[in-house]
Structures are given as structure tokens and as C-alpha cells.
Amino acid sequence: MRADARLNRERIVAAARELIAEHGPDTATEEVARRAQVGVGTVYRHFPDRAALVRALALDSFQRVVDLARTTEDEESTAWAALSRFVLDAADELRLATWLSIWFASTWADLRADPENRRLRHLLMTILDRVVRRAQHEGALREDVDVNDVALLLAALLRPIPGIPPAETQRSVRRYLVLALDGLRADGPASPLPEQGVRIAWDDRAET
């Protein structure tokens, strides 16, 4: 891809990210083109339909989340600090991915089988699994949770709430993430967890 074409593609993806986060799934292609400062025809040349644009948005967010996971693991001195920083710093990207999965469910179903999506998903869960185990070894994270619990807890907290505008939930999400992190800490009394948590199929150890 030529440099100018690559730049246009990046601008389109960035514009679509902003507009969908601001206004939801009904964002028009014309609005994306206007925000990206390109013609509508340029948008369609790169993304012939909405599914292609959603795929690009999803993979862009997944890559950003993987990069954040790597950075926090490398830079923080303890696994708990890495986990806490990741949860808070990755919230915006994870929320966008969660919203896309709901707003564009049919496209998301196809994306689950996408090789690049599977690669990024495996990378992220591998890093998080390593951080979770290290945090437990340090004595900072309660022993009865695993990476599946952490991932699903984040997904549940970042889902859009019916009747509440996306911008409103964005303002309060860090409050509830901090509460969730406190519930994961090992120090202090913890209630026994009922039943078995859901398992995410991301490696050979996971159940379907």
C-alpha cells in the first residue's frame, strides 16, 4: 500500500473510532469521511462495506490492548501493579471492542474465526494469564480466580447499559473498575465464590 493510501486508511479508522464511541452504531459513512478529511469514495475503496470497517476497528483495538498489556507487564515492578494499570489503561479500548461485538453482532460472529483476531486474542490472554499467576505468587491477587474471571469481569463492566448514553457510562467506568480491582485483592476478607466460572477457549487448557 502506498504511503498516502496507508495514511488515508489510518485516518478513516481513527475517525470511525471517534464517531462510533461518540454516537454509536448509526454513524454514517459520510460523517466518517468528513471527520477523516477524505472523500466518501476513498472510504469505500478501503472499506467496501460496514463489515470491513468494523473488522478494521476491532483488530486495531485488539492490537492496542495487546500493546498495553505488554507495556504494563514490562514497565511495572510487580504483577499487581501491572494488572491494575492494564485494567484502567485498557478500559477505553476494551469498551469499544465490547460495544462493537454487541452493535455489529453478525460481523463479530465472523470475526471470531479471523486468523488475526485469534492471534491477538491468544497473545492477550497469554500475557494476562502470566500476570495473574505472578500476582497470585506475590500474594497480591486472591487465589480462587484465574485469567478467565478477570477477562469476563472486564467484559461485563464495560458493556453498554440500556437507557444510559455511552458518554455517561464512559465517565463512571473507572469508578467501577477500581471497585472490581479491590474485590480481586488478596488482602482482607473475601467471600467464597459460588459455582465454577465460565472458561474462555484461548489455549489447550481451556474448555469450550
What does it look like?
The longest helix is centred in the N-terminal third of the chain and has 26 residues, at 50-75. The chain has 208 residues and is mainly α. The mean pLDDT is 87. 70% of the residues lie in helices and 0% in strands.
Quick structural summary:
The protein has 208 residues and is an all-alpha fold. 70% of the residues lie in helices and 0% in strands.
Count, helices: 10
Q: What would the principal axes of the Cα set say about the shape?
A: elongated
User: What does the main sheet amount to?
Assistant: none
Report the mean per-residue pLDDT as an integer.
87
Distance between the termini: 38 Å
List keywords for this structure.
208 residues, mainly alpha, elongated
Annotate the secondary structure layout:
Blueprint: H1 3-23, H2 29-36, H3 40-46, H4 50-75, H5 79-89, H6 91-103, H7 105-111, H8 115-137, H9 147-157, H10 166-184
